[in-house]
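Folds vary. Our protein:
___
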Amino acid sequence: MAEDKPFIPVRIAVLTVSDTRSLAEDRSGDTLVARIEAAGHHLAARTILRDDRAAIADQLRAWIADKEIDVILSTGGTGLTGRDVTVEAHRDVYEKEIEAFATVFTIVSMKKIGTSAVQSRATGGVAGGTYLFALPGSTGACKDAWDEILVHQFDYRHKPCNFVEIFPRLDEHLRRK
């Protein structure tokens, strides 16, 4: 941790994907919001959508286009069943996938749930200068992803490197030369 660097809050949107939950019952979304705010970041938006690939991708694109959102965290729909389409929706919008996120998430999960970690398809990527991460729908998985990975990568003071320090360069390919 580089104490000589300032903390830079980021603006994070939370999308819960579920056919059954409402905001009142969204424990995983609540878990993410609490951690986002406790870390000093800003909740930029929050919604719940059903497991519908096109609707999820449309919401991701709308938030990517919103310059008041830096990061999108989705929870739910990363499993193996037929209705689990969040990963596909994320990949529909990614410009670049962050493959190592899935690997590191699996390592973190294995410490908690053993080989059951193979059932997660958590993913991360970048599009339009926005980071996107698809997390499983369990509160435990959301805690693990945030506490073990994302809280550090979204802290500008984290060494040797972090996601915040490269924000200005995420969309450099989109700018006119």
Remarks:
- The chain has a mean pLDDT of 93.
- The helical segments are 27-38, 53-65, 86-93, 99-113, 139-153.
- The two ends are 35 Å apart (CA to CA).
- The beta strands are 11-17, 42-49, 71-75, 96-97, 123-127, 130-135.
